[in-house]
Amino acid sequence: MDVVIFGAGGLGREIYDTLLTINAGGQGTQYQVLGFIDQVKAPGTLVNGVPVLGGSEALAALRGRAAMIIGIADAGVRKKLHQQYRADFAFPNIIHPTAQVSGFARLGSAILIQAYCIVAANASLGDGVMMNAHSGVGHDAQVEDYCAIMSYCDLAGGSQLGTLSFVGTGAKVIPSTRIAAESYLCAGTVVFKDVLEKSKLMGNPAKIIG
Ligand SMILES: CC(C)(COP(=O)(O)OP(=O)(O)OC[C@H]1O[C@@H](n2cnc3c(N)ncnc32)[C@H](O)[C@@H]1OP(=O)(O)O)[C@@H](O)C(=O)NCCC(=O)NCCS
Fold first, then answer.
1. How many angstroms does the Cα of residue 1 sit away from the middle of ligand 1?
2. pTM of the full predicted structure?
């Protein structure tokens, strides 16, 4: 499958590594990365040997010819890109070969699951959700559309993460806790109680700071 990665920053380069790992395993879909789409880096710049094709204007020539993978963690940007381009580009689910995804989990589209993640039985991930390395989503947990979960996070069984929420690295949510939409968990936050939408949380136990 021919693909472009939107964003040549840290996450975009991590995704490129994941695609190389998938290809090296020789199982399932193989990915040919045509290039990065990047609003800042000059067209023609090589990023880990892969060319920057240009900013979003470069996508016009690729409609119907390539799939897109979103390489930006910001949840709002993930939603905007998916909704703007999904009529013209496929958005494959990219799952690192070391991740364990239950056959009973439900996955939307445009999902990214990085190395050593676990998605447990009957969990669900909505469209555009990303999980960076070593994160877990427990049994029956629900992660709504476009949430971005950074590395080493744990959303325990039955917990819920409302749409467009961001979970900073190392954050944890105890079982059956509801984090409402557009919330922001700072790095290392441990959440023990339900919180309302647009909550900014920090610390252990988590305190609302905004
Ligand atoms: C919460 C956050 C947004 C704050 O950023 P900031 O406003 O630039 O804050 P600062 O770095 O200026 O720190 C301000 C104070 O808060 C403390 N602090 C910052 N982040 C904290 C966190 N996650 N938990 C507890 N304390 C924190 C700092 O130690 C500092 O304390 P001090 O005033 O006693 O020195 C950021 O630290 C964070 O957690 N971001 C998540 C990033 C992430 O996970 N990214 C994914 C990987 S790329």
1. 39
2. 0.96
